[in-house]
């Protein structure tokens, strides 16, 4: 394979993936809604239609990629303002993904790598790391839409011969990270007391450059055909361990308070923030052994390497 189309190439993961692909000598086309934010070397294809409507008709005749990596999505948010979140997520993450697959298949693309989420499986690990064959039980509209998209794409692949590969990352971090990980960085930087010293639950994460490397392998390795993979750094810290490690790299003291987990749950219910609290105190360990055994993939960067790079980026912006 020599040419890869990346949807959402100007996003957090898309930019990292594009850099890895270009460094490895691949031609990269980025399908984006707005021009100008892709990394150098990416050929931009701007399509601002809603949920890829009409993509099969606007696909350039000269564009003939070997693989499509589908990153573009309606992302998970803590407070969704949509009147019907399930419908809004389904329109982009399911129907939009199918339109991309259909357009790609019609133009002779052989493989589509769909970047799903561990939230398509569960929010907690129920006592052992989540595997690819665990019965899925998504808990929110985002997770349900990702699981539905997985099923729809696999059915489409079975009907047409399109090789669909599914990748389910947990929380992704790295330079330019946003959302909850950025909030944790802010709190450590500002010395905000964090009530997490008593939390023993562990959470899997993946450094964005490790995820990008795994996606490249899934796009190009024949052994990935028709598989589903979980991808992690292989290190599962507690939230307290994560905060202390960030403090070390940010050169800031970390203030952790030993608040009992039961009290945190009560506070979550009283403030209507139970979901946020559970993300702090619930265990979500993910087994990424399958991609290692099938593809021989190993993370290029250690967990500490990823935190160090993230902290360097954060310090450079403050």
Structural summary, described in words:
The model has no long low-confidence stretch (mean pLDDT 94). This protein has helices at 12-23, 55-58, 85-106, 141-160, 179-190, 208-220, 239-250, 261-270, 274-281, 289-295, 303-316; strands at residues 3-7, 27-32, 43-46, 67-70, 111-115, 163-168, 171-173, 205-207, 228-230. The strands form two sheets. A seven-stranded parallel β-sheet has the order 3-2-1-4-5-6-9, sandwiched between helices. The protein has a two-stranded parallel ribbon with strand order 7-8. α4 (141-160) links the parallel β5 and β6. It has a domain at 3-175 and 205-234 and 285-301: NAD(P)-binding Rossmann-like Domain (Rossmann fold), CATH 3.40.50. The termini are far apart. It has 318 residues and is α/β, with parallel strands linked by helices. It contains eleven helices and nine strands. This is SDR family oxidoreductase. InterPro entries: Epimerase_deHydtase, Lipid_A_modif_metabolic_enz, NAD(P)-bd_dom_sf. It comes from Paraburkholderia acidicola. Pfam families: Epimerase. Residues 4-224 form the NAD-dependent epimerase/dehydratase domain.
List the SSEs and their pairings.
Blueprint: E1 3-7, H1 12-23, E2 27-32, E3 43-46, H2 55-58, E4 67-70, H3 85-106, E5 111-115, H4 141-160, E6 163-168, E7 171-173, H5 179-190, E8 205-207, H6 208-220, E9 228-230, H7 239-250, H8 261-270, H9 274-281, H10 289-295, H11 303-316
Parallel strand pairs: 1-2, 1-4, 2-3, 4-5, 5-6, 6-9, 7-8
